[in-house]
Design brief:
The protein is of the alpha+beta class. It is built from four helices and nine strands. The N and C termini lie close together (9 Å).
Length: 126
Amino acid sequence: MKIPDDLKYTQDHEWIRVDGEFAFVGITDFAQSELGDVVFVEVETVGEEIEKEDAFGTIEAVKTVSDMFMPVGGEIVEFNEKLQDAPDLINQDPYGDGWVIKVKMSDPSEINDLMDAETYKGHIGE
């Protein structure tokens, strides 16, 4: 199970990577392994301001459909278009090509409320 040290994590198994005033968000390796084969990703919130912990989209796998939640508040400025034709990128590369959204953070200090890699490992029982 990969849990990169340079990311922050939520209790709902999203990860976030900060890049200046923007951040990339996806689901963790643990989450994708629990979901199984991802077959569809839906994000209809591009251009919207979403509060921290609110749902920003859904991810559909063979087994189930799950909401994805904002790790920080902000405006969703981009959806990873590669996921339209290849949603399984989330299974293959959850921290790279499988990112889901790019967010312009409204309060970057909210990142401090999230788990680091060690804390997240404990959260999932690693």
